Amino acid sequence: MRTDTGQIIHLADYRPTDFVLERVDLTFDLHPTETKVEARLIFHRREGADPKAPLVLDGDELSLSGLLLDQVDVPASQFEATAESLTVRDLPESTPFELTITTVINPEANTQLMGLYRSGGIYCTQCEAEGFRRITYFPDRPDVLAPYTVNIIADKAANPLLLSNGNFLGGAGYGEGKHFAAWFDPHPKPSYLFALVAGDLGLVEDTFVTMSGREVALKIYVEHGKEPRAAYAMDALKRSMKWDEERFGREYDLDIFMIVAVSDFNMGAMENKGLNVFNDKYVLADPEIATDADYANIEAIIAHEYFHNWTGNRITCRDWFQLCIKEGLTVYRDHEFSADQRSRPVKRIAEVRHLKSEQFPEDSGPLAHPVRPTKYREINNFYTTTVYEKGSEVTRMIATLLGRDLFKKGMDLYFDRHDGQAVTIEDFIKCFEDASGRDLTQFSLWYHQAGTPLVTASGTYDAAAKSFTLSLEQMVPATPGQATKEPMHIPLRTALFAADGALLTPTSVTGAELTDDVLHLTARTQTAVFHDIPSRPVLSLNRSFSTPINLQLSQSAKDLALIARYETDHFARWQALIDLGLPNLLQAARDARQGIPVTCDAAFVDALLAAANDESLEPAFRAQALALPSEADIARELGGNNDPDAIHTGRQAILALIAEAGKNIFAALYDNMQTPGPFSPDAASAGRRALRNAALTYLSQSDNAPARAKAAFDAANNMTDLSAALTILAHRFPETAEAKAAIEGFRDRFAGNALVIDKWFAIQAAIPGAATLERIQGLMETPLFKRTNPNRMRALVGTFAFANPTGFGRADGAGYRFLAEEILDIDQRNPQLAARILTSMRSWRLLEPVRADHARSALMQIERAGNLSTDVRDIVDRILK
Ligand code: ARG
Ligand code: ZN
């Protein structure tokens, strides 16, 4: 296992390599425990580089078994090899030279799942960010691009399939039961996009004709027997290819595009050139095993990885500090795709929920960092929701500032100007400045300043002057390493409504720029005056969540109810309902803590039920309205000294009050929202199921027996309904015979399907209350539990730590101690997974003192352990600091 080197990498230290890599020729002789890798690398010294500089290549747990320079053995005096690097001296000053490096690696022993590993009989690679250096010595950094030829030799019976990036060159027998295949990728790429897959898999094939009329072979490889479950992924892939042509003018650039689904994978998926590797969770679906959420995730992730072909692969990052240039931009692209394929406002609501529950806590805690960080200790820990989701929001704001046409012009310029390059955020921003003539200097602070800005707003109406004055103030909180901040450029979509719900349009605005509905807040404080407003307006601010901020604006329940009813922007309607509900949930948590009975404003309950019952609204929207902020959301809003039990009790009490008031509405919805006919995963049907299951959740809140939920469980004919019913039974009635029967029945029915069993683990891991820890420890003893499988660990340990505040945060601290022990154990095998799950502790300082003490002790237990990976060391140090 890697031990911590403690080294911190700084953006300011970036410099290009001394040597330019011209081409790469790799030969793999695959073997489960002794794979021989021969890398032939052609370099020349960069013009202007020190003529004496040695060539220094990266390695990780490597040992060198051969080194040739232009086909001749290199004498020991000329090089030095360690597990982490290979240094070669006295290389030619100006002529190209060929280095042939041989290493032998052990895929079977690679439990980190970085580099080349073997899982379930399949050879597979993951090289981003720094996995390629676990295969061979290499300049393993994203600004070293070259065309690759890859030859794969392997036992033919066990590995009928030999895949790598690019186009297939040919294959043949190789003697002794072996065969070989050769691939060539003409597009220069960095090593993190290299991939190799070998083994025996089933194939689903299709074709796509690109906008210039080229036919591309599409191939999805899955475990034998699972081919029918790849149909939806294939469909999503074709829709993605079409959409990227239509929306961004991007055409695919190889003869073949392959996706391989594997079951042991550290992340969601990986965009290797022409050969994406996916966690099978994001490929396999059919109504029996996949929920509507799974279908939506598959569609989004297939699109995301495909879109990387241009934003990431054709144009990549100069260094890992620029990660958001591919991730933030590509998330923005996949969000737009999903919005076009489904309901735009519902998609936006889901995005904002996710942003607030994942990115906002990161940005306000010890792990906060800028979208474009300036230093890191372990790059794997920077594949964060800040880089991805806030990075996407920043891209969205550029589109908002420029408008659709100029944004398109800027993107076109980016693709033209930087195709084939490894670039920086500055290069990216410059394209939009050049395309629009707009100065984005202040705007670019969004990339450099961490922390969620707080905007405080208040409005006053002057009836005599017929003007509405909006006072705005912005504050960006201090974050680790950034004590003071500059004012940001904050684009606030804004609208004013009359008491009858009509839109009020000012004749002019002074004190701030207003373009269409975008109000530009650029100073620390600013006062905008809207002229010729005939009556007191109701303000709708940050429509569509045009900017990722915390907004402090006090509005009467009456005004919020008006927005919830009349806003033309449906996101803003949803936000108004949340703003109506949140104070009730916060007060409920406080009351529950004091033992005071919980109450709820009628205005909120009425508005919520009106939305739920409004047939002019799409069911998916109504379901989103009924999903109250989570316990974690409430904890974040409370802001400190938090007692998870009180938050839970208060929230449950509010749910019960709504359930009681809406009994008839929920009963009618449950009856009427059936989806007739055979199952279809389309967005409209999914919306009906979501609304129906939301109704069932409320009905079960007022039921004091599990009969209704159990009937729903027994009647379910798809995984969405089945898992919703199981969740209600397990979470609301865990000790009943019905819940126990459902839990066992579900297990027995799906014991052979790992992805469904992950759901079974996750649902149980999220059962509220102190007893869940013992349940989890019991589950870990069952044969279905697989310690080495990342999906399984995330389902059980990850869900418990991230999504069960009362179970994980039980008052005696046993949940935190359990996590500490698990982290230390996981870290021995898979540091990346351990570090990721450990981030669940990032908000520990918001806990009340007794729990906070327990959490700190558990973190210190990790910190004191010897032999920590850099990944875990980095996270635990930052969380404790
Ligand atoms: N580039 C991949 C994606 O977002 C994710 C890779 C994650 N890598 C990591 N080291 N965590 O599509
Ligand atoms: Zn990505």
UniProtKB/TrEMBL annotation:
InterPro entries: Aminopeptidase_N-like_N, Aminopeptidase_N-like_N_sf, PepN_Ig-like_sf, Peptidase_M1, Peptidase_M1_dom, Peptidase_M1_pepN, Peptidase_M1_pepN_C, Peptidase_M1_pepN_C_sf. Residues 232-443 form the Peptidase M1 membrane alanine aminopeptidase domain. Gene3D superfamilies: 2.60.40.1840, 3.30.2010.30, Neutral Protease Domain 2 (1.10.390.10), Peptidase M1, alanyl aminopeptidase, C-terminal domain (1.25.50.10), tricorn interacting facor f3 domain (2.60.40.1730). GO terms for molecular function: alanyl aminopeptidase activity; metallopeptidase activity; zinc ion binding. It comes from the Bacteria. Pfam families: DUF3458, DUF3458_C, Peptidase_M1, Peptidase_M1_N. Residues 451-552 form the Peptidase M1 alanyl aminopeptidase Ig-like fold domain. Keywords: Aminopeptidase, Hydrolase, Metal-binding, Metalloprotease, Protease, Zinc. One of its GO terms (biological process) is proteolysis. Residues 558-881 form the Peptidase M1 alanyl aminopeptidase C-terminal domain. Its EC number is 3.4.11.2. Its cofactor is Zn(2+). The keyword 4Fe-4S does not apply. Transmembrane segments: none annotated. It catalyses: Release of an N-terminal amino acid, Xaa-|-Yaa- from a peptide, amide or arylamide. Xaa is preferably Ala, but may be most amino acids including Pro (slow action). When a terminal hydrophobic residue is followed by a prolyl residue, the two may be released as an intact Xaa-Pro dipeptide. PANTHER family: PUROMYCIN-SENSITIVE AMINOPEPTIDASE. Belongs to the peptidase M1 family. This is Aminopeptidase N. The lineage of its organism: Bacteria, Pseudomonadati, Pseudomonadota, Alphaproteobacteria, Hyphomicrobiales.
